[in-house]
Amino acid sequence: MDDERFSFIVEWYEEMAARVRQFQFFYFPNSKSVEMFDIKNRKLFLRTSVKDTTLCLTDLYIGNSVNVCQRLLTIVDYGDDFTRRRLSSKKEKTLGLIKPDAVEKLGQVLDKITQKGFLISRLRMCRLDRDQALDFYREHLSKPFLNALLDYVTSGPVVAFEIVGENAVDTWREAIGPTDPSEARKQAPTSIRAQYGTDKTCNAVHGSDSPSSAAREIEFFFPSSGAMPPNTAKVGNCTCCIIKPSALRAGVAGKIINAITEAGFCVGAAQMLSLEKANAEEFLEVYKGVVHEYPAMVAELFSGPCLALEIVGGGGNAQVASTFRELCGPADPEIARHLRPRTLRALFGTDKVQNAVHCTDLPDDGQLEVEYFFRILDR
């Protein structure tokens, strides 16, 4: 049978020319091959001769960035009616929000999201002021519980994330359960609110109630233009952890964060990013010429979204970096499994490149690495 073909419009920022180029992008799922046509010049730009095994149909939805042959492409539209008909209902988006009382359960909530088959495409830990919270909950302006809700949602950090999937709005609402956790424990005891919610206000999580609400709420936390709510990084007494793209694809991010918090560390900030090759090279430059795997490490870091974490613990930067590095374990997961089988890389790593997490190696660099992800790249 002939290979199906799905078509998208993608944009690529060409650094050398400092311009955005637009292409028609074709993906053939059976062979996992790709073709790209330059729309302006009306000619073939790229045809993959080797299978691109890291790219899957689930990665292809409007707004996502994908890495193809060391080019970071942003998908801006469907390329034909066939693709729109086949994929639009399967690529519905909704917003999920972990509220202040449940942020410490971040790893457990993310793990449940993964278990239910959801794809998280964007994520950001932030803190809302009262005006921002009022804007987000403006449909409740006339409700008697508004002030209590605003007090609660501004009392600490929240974690916002975009979910992509088939009937995402309704499926996510079903997963989180009824608004009142006591009712959730009766009607849907395995739901997120049943397990982590306290009352109708402190009910752990939020889910958009309609596609139109989802679009507005996603734009609130992840605006197409303008400033996002500020991240929560304090960049002090901290070190950096990057959950690598391969670990995100494997669905173990929640388990990794669980292991980090169970070891006594706190996640002070979190955000998902898709790096350009130049960013990955810059961040990992300390390993250039030092470790044989440097080119592969760069390729891994910008092969898809990664999840950056600010890790906070007792003591100064150097002490936090040193103790967290011990939790991560040796760079080679095989060695880690023999010598330190309970470390993160032993439990979740595959090889020296896809070893689940990056951690700050030099004790004094933890704050610098956090600053790079949460200050420099967040501008």
Structural account:
The chain starts with 5 loop residues before the first strand and ends with a helix. About 40% of the residues are buried. About 35% of the residues lie in helices and about 25% in strands. The model has no long low-confidence stretch (mean pLDDT about 90). With about 375 residues, the chain is of the alpha+beta class.
List the keywords.
single chain; 379 residues; alpha+beta; six-stranded antiparallel beta sheet; four-stranded antiparallel beta sheet; 16 helices; 14 strands
What structural class do helix, strand and pairing data support?
Answer: alpha+beta
How many strands, which pairing sense, and closed or not: the largest β-sheet? 6 strands, antiparallel
Tally of individual helices:
16
Name the average pLDDT: 92
Spatial extent as radius of gyration: 21 Å
Q: Name the poorly predicted regions.
A: none
DSSP, total strands: 14
**Fraction of residues in helix:** 25-40%
Shape type: globular
Beta-strand residue percentage = 15-25%
Helix/strand order:
EEEEEEHEHEHHEHHHEHEHHEHHEHHHEH
Amino- and carboxy-terminal Cα gap: 48 Å
User: How is the largest sheet built, in terms of strand order?
Assistant: 4-3-2-1-6-5
Identify the quaternary structure here. single chain
